[in-house]
Amino acid sequence: MNVPVWVNGELLDPAQASVSVFDHGLMVGDGVFETIKIVDGVSFALTRHLDRLTLSAQRMDLPDPDVEAIADGILRVLAVAPKWALGRIRVTYTSGPGPLGSDRGDQGTTAVVIVDEQKPFPASANVTVVPWPRNERGALSGVKSTSYGDNAKALAYAKARGGGEAIFGNLAGNLCEGTGSNIFIVRDGRLLTPTLEAGPLAGVTRALTLEWCGGDEEDVPLSALYEAEEAFLTSTTRDIQPIRLVDDTVLPAYPGPITAKAMEIFADRSSKNLDPR
Description:
This protein is of the alpha+beta class.
């Protein structure tokens, strides 16, 4: 990767770019981030992603990020990046350098923008339910925090068992989310996704799917995933991906008619509006 990166307002060669070893994003995971899709060299849903970056920062009691500067940094990086058919932007925002404990420092925040090509996801997904629940009552519930150790462990667990994504339940025993995705199921002919109170991230693609394709937010038991008529994942870089296999259970259809219609609608609407507000 030799595409320049943007760090605190400067466009830098990746080999020369650096942040402090005392940065709390590295030290204690004290930061937030966003992944934003690139389509033919243009960002998708940038406004919604930067709004969520701000919300995540506020929920972690971080200063509001300078989203205008970050948006300009994204434009500057994209201007010199290849025009990939599909790519991704990674925006990372941390509390900046700090002491060797959990106390925050006073040297200012760190903001980084990186872009890279994104390979398409498979036509369908195999998912693995992991044994560790999300804490829907935790301080970081629903925050896109850089504290991603539990996700890294869960995804490794899933991949060791043939899954491409790990699925979490929550403390109440209800369906929650994937490590980098939201989840929808079709149950009794209804399209459902877990409520935000169940602990999932308020995904941008999740919200657009609900707005454009319909569906209801409802708490459902984790066991309902195995019994679903159809199911799919949503995320920034996969859009809508049908689920084929849940552990050892093959779902009846992948995609089924409701999933296929949602995929069609999402593809059409997203192609016509690259920054849906």
